[in-house]
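Quick review question:
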């Protein structure tokens, strides 16, 4: 029996691949023990127990970026968190730590090193985060969703996909998916999403462009996110949701998407072969732009700056593109050539390879 400690959290981008690997582990070996490590404040506090896995928490410890009272106290608090994880590793006889980044990961990486047990890291973004940059220095192996991160010993596995997304990479019933949302089964469909919280710029531009899209014969499934003040709508040719609990069906329903360029979104769209116009988030460290390079080079998507995505762009660029069945088909094929459908299995096999033959079930 193998005991795994999977660490990561804070955002869905860290938690979902963690859960996908956990599912792959338990599907292959029902005797395996999977424990997740996160913080009480992150999304993992709800998502991990809901999936049936045990969650252990440590203090949320962002790396300080400027001198402050928090920065002065950070080293001692960090060491306490490392000690807490070391005790967990010993008590639960953990065989390997697999980290996905986020606040809980760095103490776990140090703890694995001190306890002399294997460490594998998965980096979801093309531009690595601080915790994974630290852990990659001594990890046994670094798996990446996008090639060229610059991390040592990186191996491309792609993103561990949610099982429902994996399912539609194999069999995609577009008409049935559209019917689920009350959309016409035979009409060209545009999916618009800015993630779980939404993207105000995307929402506002699409809202103002509804008439033009409808006139061009394009129906829209618009997921505005939890922060939007736009109310749900269900009209002929236009469906607006605040939150979508069946993103697999939303993706399956679409011929094209307009979206931010988070690692999970880009990976899921490419795996399914869904072409998209990506509007990278305009603030932060710019990792969303880097997530797109391979896909753009292959011709499976387009990118426009947030500042350039406006009503005129929709009218002069997006609608003509959506009106070209040939171009959409070519882009869909190109996206599929870049997409990786079995990222969870690829990552699992690398993890088992680090563990050795005695742990392969």
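Suggested answer, residue by residue:
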């Amino acid at each position: 029996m193998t005991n795994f400690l999977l660490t990561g959290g804070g955002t869905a981008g860290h938690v979902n691949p963690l859960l996908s690997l956990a599912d792959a582990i338990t599907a292959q070996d029902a005797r395996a023990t999977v424990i997740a490590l996160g913080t009480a404040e992150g999304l993992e506090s709800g998502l991990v127990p809901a999936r049936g896995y045990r969650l252990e928490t440590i203090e949320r410890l962002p790396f300080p970026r400027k001198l402050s009272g928090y920065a002065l106290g950070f080293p001692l608090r960090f060491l306490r968190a490392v000690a807490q994880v070391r005790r967990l590793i010993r008590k639960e006889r953990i065989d390997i730590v697999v980290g996905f980044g986020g606040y809980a990961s760095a103490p776990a990486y140090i703890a694995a090193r001190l306890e002399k047990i294997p460490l594998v890291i998965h980096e979801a973004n093309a531009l690595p985060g601080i915790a994974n940059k630290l852990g990659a220095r001594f990890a046994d192996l670094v798996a990446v969703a996008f090639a060229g991160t610059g991390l040592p010993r990186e191996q491309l596995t792609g993103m561990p996909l949610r099982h429902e997304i994996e399912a539609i990479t194999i069999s995609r019933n577009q008409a049935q998916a559209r019917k689920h949302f009350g959309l016409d089964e035979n009409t060209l469909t545009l999916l618009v999403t800015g993630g779980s919280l939404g993207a105000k710029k995307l929402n506002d531009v699409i809202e103002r462009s509804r008439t033009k899209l409808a006139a061009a014969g394009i129906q829209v499934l618009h997921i505005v996110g939890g922060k939007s003040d736009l109310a749900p709508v269900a009209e002929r040719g236009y469906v607006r949701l605040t939150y979508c609990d069946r993103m697999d069906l939303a993706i399956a329903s679409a011929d094209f998407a307009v979206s931010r360029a988070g690692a999970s979104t880009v990976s899921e769209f490419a795996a399914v072969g869904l072409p998209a116009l990506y509007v990278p988030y305009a603030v932060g460290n710019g990792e969303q732009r880097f997530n797109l390079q391979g896909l753009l080079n292959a011709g499976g998507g387009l990118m426009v700056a947030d500042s350039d995505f406006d009503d005129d762009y929709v009218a002069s660029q997006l609608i003509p593109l959506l009106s070209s069945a040939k171009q959409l088909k070519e882009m869909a094929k190109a996206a599929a050539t870049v997409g990786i459908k079995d990222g969870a299995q690829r990552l699992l096999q690398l993890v088992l390879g680090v563990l050795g033959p005695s742990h392969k079930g």
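Why it works: The chain has a mean pLDDT of 93. The CA atoms of residues 157 and 286 lie 22 Å apart.
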